[in-house]
Amino acid sequence: MRFANILTAVADVMAGVAIAGWAKVPLIVDIDSILQITCLCIATAGLYGGGVVFNDIFDAELDRVERPERPIPSGAVSKTQAIILGIYLLLIGIFAAFTISILTGYIAIAIAACALIYNKWGKHRGFLGPVNMGICRGLNLLLGMSIINESIDSMGWVAILPIVYISAITLISRDEVHGGQKGPLRIAATCYFLVYATILFIAYMNGKIWQVLPFIAIFIFLTNRPLLKAIKNPVGPNIGAAVKGGIIALIAMDAAWAASFATLPYAVSVLLLLPVSLIISKWISVT
To answer: Is residue 184 part of a domain?
Structure first.
């Protein structure tokens, strides 16, 4: 289920909650708020977990050649067991989302559908594949924002940024097994810069530029260090490290979004998911 990655999905939702304006008060202490955010976190965990389980299901035959250590080709679980788990996780995600609102439930259904489309067809469709994967992340940010439905009308455009960012990561991830060219890596660097600049601009407009700078600095460090190494030498292991860095760095990006719209303690609470994810990623594969 890529548990380290699931924490990045939770961070997306927490960032969406901040963008919606729910986390502007110093602390969220009432039980209704805690329950709603908890349900959103359960929803995104189920949707992400189910999505990556189905990724392994659809890739099982290819993985027997390229990644025999994965659970299905290694024999750790059967394909039938994986299908049951994947369905179970997606249903948990959808049902948890409907406890928030009808709109939240519909967004969850859209995420599940986009994940399955990507796993079955999208990843094999050139330019459309990375965009398909990016849309899953953009919808995940909207999932968090839907805690206040009206916020999507005014701030829903922000979801374009994770679409751009994840599209870039997905583009370069295609070369993490056999290596590739520098072109896709340079495209990714351009997309990353667009995300950095937009976050900083919004933080400036919200009067929170100094609050955001530490978070954006961490984000830039985590993404650029492995990416620059891969650009210099685009072999498989370097590209794989760039993909892993980009995925884990999502938490820092979400913390920067949170710092742009909410209080510093709330942004720090998002960032605290980063060391947990990094520790877990040492034992459980991210890609």
So the answer is: yes
pTM score: 0.89
Q: Judging by beta carbons within 10 Å of its beta carbon (0-12, 13-18, 19+), is residue 21 exposed, middle or buried?
A: middle
Distance CA 267, CA 62 (A): 40
Residue 81 banded pLDDT, cuts 50, 70, 90:
very high
- Of the candidates 222, 214, 229, 164, the one whose C-alpha atom is nearest the C-alpha of residue 190 is 164
Residue at 287 is within a domain:
no
In a domain, 286, yes or no: no
In a domain, 49, yes or no: yes
Vertex 153, ends 214 and 272: CA angle to 5°? 25
Structure tokens that stand for 246 in this block: 């980009």
Q: What is the spatial distance between Cα 237 and Cα 223, in angstroms, rounded to a whole number?
A: 15
* CA separation for the pair 39, 44 (Å, rounded): 9
Neighbours of 207 (CB within 10 A): 9
Alpha-carbon span 111 to 176, nearest angstrom: 25
How many domains would you assign to the chain? 1
Q: Would you place residue 28 in the very low, low, confident or very high pLDDT band (cuts 50, 70, 90)?
A: low
What is the residue range of 41's domain?
3-281
The DSSP string of 272-284 is: THHHHHHHHHTTS
Contact 216, 196 (CB under 8 A): yes
Q: Is the pLDDT of residue 202 over 90?
A: yes
- Output the domain CATH number for residue 200: 1.10.357.140
Task: Give the tokens for residue 281.
Answer: 């990623």
Chain center to CA of 139: 10
DSSP 28: -
